[in-house]
Amino acid sequence: MKKFAITASMALAVTLSASAMAHQENHGYVTNSNGAIWRTSTGACLKHSSWSDADQAACDGSPAPTAAVISAAKKFAVFFDFDSATVGNVAQIAEYINGLSKAGNVSLIGHADPIGNNAYNMALSQKRAVNVANALTQAGVKPSSISVDYQGESAPQAQCSGRGAELISCLRADRRVDVQIGG
Description:
Elements lengths: L1 H19 L53 E6 L11 H9 L6 E5 L7 H21 L7 E5 L13 H7 L5 E6 L2
Parallel strand pairs: 2-3
Antiparallel strand pairs: 1-4, 2-4
């Protein structure tokens, strides 16, 4: 009895696999015993796991184009007057963030120019980053998506020499909060 069950199981498996195998003209597709390609409930051709673009059959048409991955990451900078943490207009940044279907993390990093001592510049860069976070929150950005960091004068962008108003003007790029929006 046990031998009969094993033999019957093997015969059934061979029959099913033979009927599901693709015919030579329909390689890569599951076919019935007549060679016709089986279709899904949506009308798409039923493919074997070994299917490739080279197996393209008339029922499928052209392969669907692959979706392009577009990063939603974008960077902005908010600049400040000398010795100030007063935030200007952040409407464009908030509009961009609020327009995304999924904004992800909004990273804020405050910076200061090298005029003044290190501790003062660290505190000023922190205050700038916190003030930008508050302005973005007031403009509708979710506070839970915002992270705040500050670096004081440790990440300069400007290379300046000179004194007084000329130096202050040249160092404007260092008085900023970098805003990075991840997707």
